[in-house]
Protein 1
Amino acid sequence: MAKRELQEINAGSMADIAFLLLIFFLVTTTMDSDTGLMRKLPPIPDPTVEQEEDQQINQRNILEVLVSRDDFIMVENEIVPLRELRTITRYFIENPNEDADLPEMIDKNIPFFGMIRVHKNAVISLQNDLSTTYGVYLAVQNELLAARDELKNELALNTWGIAYDDLNEEQMAAVDDYYKVPISEAEPKKIGGN
Amino acid sequence: MGKFERSTGKGGVAKINTASLPDIVFMLLFFFMTTTVMREVELKIGVVVPEATQGKKLEKKSLASFVYIGKPLPNLRATFGSEPKIQLNDSFKEVNDIQDFIAQERESLDEADKSKMLVSLKIDRNTKMGVVIDVKQALRRANALKIMYANRNVDEISDVR
């Protein structure tokens, strides 16, 4: 004792203090990172402005997807299982054989790609009933988004060899223009009585 | 055995050196501080968000407002029933309150961030779409058009029915 020159600070309670803080943070915080499907809602239509666009979209340019009140998924009035929805959507967007009942194709000049054949104004319309289960609705929306994202990603990989998410802004805009398919969440309707 | 005897022989039990214990615990503490976020609200409803594969990560949590929809927790069912309810911040609200809530949230953001505002919908997967549609319409009226359907990212969606 006599040899010691400096009095040590007692650090024994340091561990207790740190433990206390640790437990406080464990209790008050959450670990899960937030993920979600990013969507944009359409603005409330202005009643004073005439709506012309809707009428211009030809029936063949719309892919009608409906989730019934019993959670059946129907594409163009035919029941399809969820796992086929992606393939159907992809085929609709691409329309590789220029089928007459699939979207109209036109030649369009897009930066990076030059003159290419793309569809004119295809739209995916998603409808649901009031009694549709949210889980099924979201799964359907996920498949529709997945089909579009897959096509964009493949295009990016084939053209530049990099994933869509890593493209620069101009490239991304060009790819978006290439596969420009709005997915519209239609105004709710009551389908199939109650 | 020999070691043990020697130390007891000198008087007193051999002590474990705990000098590094605070360091270890602090390390743990900093790990949790950096990887977690503060819990914003006390949930009064049970929300199990649906599975999806295309979910994008919410980059800036400060720009997001949260709308929760689901059934009240079992201990609250006696008072609030078991029908799906909307929770904003810490209390149950009606669809009509959403517009005020959005206005309030928007007011709390910086001027530059107001256009980037995003509404995250945390909706239980067994909710019927009726209430979801009402909320969506209310958000449209409130001009909060950027939304996010919160989900849990998985590699493949299991049965949805």
Note: Residues 55-185 of chain A form one domain.
Protein 2
Amino acid sequence: MAARRTPMRWPATWKDPATLALLKGTAVDCLLLEKGAGLGPIAARAQQEGLMVAEAGAPPPGVTVTDGEWPGVKLTASGTPDRVSAGPTGVPWVDANGWKIRLMAALHPGTDIWVEAVPVAPRLFPESYIIGVADAAAHGGRWIISLDERMAAGVAAGNPEALRAWKTLTGAAGFFSAHEEWLQYVPAAVVGIISDFGGQNETMSHEILNLVARTNQQYRIILKKGFSKACFQGLRAVIYADEDPPAPDLRKEALAFVRSGAMLITGPRWGELPGRPLAGVEHPRYELRAFGRGRLAVSRADLDDPYLIASDSMVLISHRHALVRFWNAGAVGSHLAVTPDRKRAVLQMVFYARLFGDNRPSVRIAGRYRQTRLWTLDQESPGAVETETQRNAVEAHLPPVTGYAAVELEV
Amino acid sequence: MGNDLTGVALDVQAGYTRREWLARAATIVPGACLAASSAGRAAAAPTAPVAVARCRTYGPELLPTLDRMFDQLGGLARIVKGRTVGIKINLTGMPSYRVGYLPLGHTHYTNPEVIAATVHLMGRAGARRIRLLESCWSTADPVEEYLLQAGWEPRDILRASRNVEFENTNCLGKSRTYSRLVVPFGGYIFPAYDLNHSYEDCDVFVSLAKLKEHASAGVTLSMKNCFGITPATIYGTGAGEDEPSELPRGGRTMMHTGYRQPPRSAPQEKDPKSPRQDGYRIPRIIVDLVSARPVDLAVVEGVKTIAGAEGPWITHGIAPTSPGLIVAGTNPVTTDAVCMAVMGYDPMADRGTAPFETCDSTLCLAEDVGIGTRDLSRIEVIGVPIKEALFDFAAIRRQRLLSPSR
């Protein structure tokens, strides 16, 4: 995954080429211009200055653009600031794009993934823009920087508050541009999600990805087409919830994976089940079967509730194997990636809601890491982070954080 | 002169007999805590000794301390030998919610070392089966998974003795039906409660609580711990209208404020017009529950805890503290009375007096229905005397109330 450029949708109201000066010293190096908006002079000057210019809606070669959500905690339809939409158990609903970026990267390997997500009121604060940038970049993509009308007007007019917000936004974009090495890291995962992610399986498989990500389980996307034995390596479990039964070669590989000591979570559409029922182990929604050294968890009913699949998978696999565990982190999203030699790792965290009070966040990261350092968007160099070493894990005590933080780890 | 909740003044000097008092009380506010005749009630309520011990850490001193305390109470074997023991632990709030960076067992959860030590001693004393019970916040997941999220290792507890198991009592659990436990005195709020089978299917019931204050109930000790035996499938925000929900959702606002009734399949409130205030309802529901499911052994752990509230969701004035104390007894009222005393509070306090500024006293209400006395002069304290054990939560509270940031 390589997000080589930092794109920006140029505001149609910024017609004066002098406004390009706003980009000086920023990471923005690709402008997407609205066709027919009278931005010809902008395009000409931008190209003279070495910026890539493309038409909005027609991305440059090597780029896949995906429609995303304006990330953050979903507010009620009325937009009342103190009310939020909640998921089935009362946990706030979070709009996030990380899963989609990773899916697009899997479906379109070798391309850069850009997210088109227009800022939506009332989440138009400077920190909302930070989350817009971080939500995409933490997962290896890039948000196409888009300003809401008020901010665009304010920046163009030199409004100090708007300029501060602009500086914060471009500072965040610059941070990720300066950390492209993290894009070479491999996502760590405990669970794999197998699907073709299209056709009749699109809605369910996408929602499973979305909600598994929301639980902060670290996951791997396994495409039915072109899967290999290596796709299962290092995982504790895989989820298969597609409508159609797996092809014989996939079935064979998945069952070999289970036999070696892992778990398959699936439904009745999987078809014939090997193994024997596990005595004395009960689950309200799944039949558990022993097979080799592993287990099959087969839903008694059709798998039709992605929320339940995601939350049940955490318990079926067990929190014991969680790679990442948070306290006091509120609505947080995370992405843990490791170097191929597994000696270094980075945990990127996006805090979709403001954290209140003295309850500072902390995170436990599985692994025998001995050195840690903390990156935040407002500091050019990494800082120390208080840690507690545990058996096969390290717990990092984070300072109050706004929007984003990353913990770099080294064994 | 004292006041009941209706504002009717009662003459302390009236000299009613207990029978007359009960009859009069019944005509005013059934079961209301009436400070005026507390002395008479205290004299009638049963008493039992309470052991108090110093325990500064959760280290090696813990097990012998608990062992000695149980011996002081007559020995665990007397209570648990050959029996199935249900232990209600206190894991209030989500396991992902801590006070700062502190482990949950050092602040508002019953400490896992205390749980393991108690389990070990019960096993050694001959308990046939030990079941650790808690209604985990807004989930039907196994307690073990809940503990893992807290950062605990459930195997450490499961291996502390033979035949140890957990059950999440926030839902139907391992039974096909809920158990209906009737409140013998008729109940303050509900005449009976539908609970997870575990509270009926145990010969001995233990409340293994944390020594804390509580925003709505003044204190949370061995009795308040039992508020959490109610399943959210019936008494929670997401409970069904006709039947219990399959999965528990949300907290117990229904119990706190009475904004709705439990599903029609469950016993309904006796008087839906009674005050809809948590300071009125919570203490009464606690007493209902402790009466319906009597506590055979109360252990209140205050080695490390918090002052100011029951958990980190109360954002003002929480302070991690280390009282270094454990209190245990076979009567939850006498045990809680001694706990209050070591916290610097008067267990005879009623509504309007700390820590019951805005609520009724659970202890008083429990004493009223004959569960136990809160009168320290009638309670034998074994081990460390109250005066020596004192860890002054009351003084911390006074300071907090005077704090300009409030």
Note: The two ends of chain A are 24 Å apart (CA to CA).
